Amino acid sequence: MSGYFGSYAVVVVLFLVGVAIFAGGLFVNRMLRPSRPTPEKLTTYECGVDPVGEGWAQSQIRYYVFTYLYVVFAVDAVFLFPWATVFATPGYGMTTLVEMFVFLAFIALGILYAWRKRVLGWT
Description:
This protein is an all-alpha fold. Helices cover 67% and strands 0% of the residues. It contains 4 helices and no strands. It has helices at 6-32, 39-42, 61-87, 93-116. It is flat and about 65 Å long. The termini are far apart. The chain crosses the membrane at residues 6-28, 63-84, 96-115. It is a multi-pass membrane protein. Keywords: Membrane, NAD, Quinone, Transmembrane, Transmembrane helix, Transport. Its main location: membrane. Belongs to the complex I subunit 3 family.
């Protein structure tokens, strides 16, 4: 295919072929699998322990805050590795050093804010 929309048409066709293969695999799996539901098979399974009570439980919000902080610092680490490789490149030393200190200052402000709001205390 040639022309402006030719490359887009190839991408769309390949996408549709991929979706068809995926859907076909799911359909064939559903047709070939045995289906013998029993009450034991339909119960919720959690680590070999029979479920007791309702399935709803409250969670403390601080667990989500710690998870969010972990994600922030994991992203910080992901940005530090490319910086370390570019820092050694001639001509980029001072520029990358200043950019990294600005980035780390933003991270430090986030930690300071979390500390001032008493989010980092595990009580």
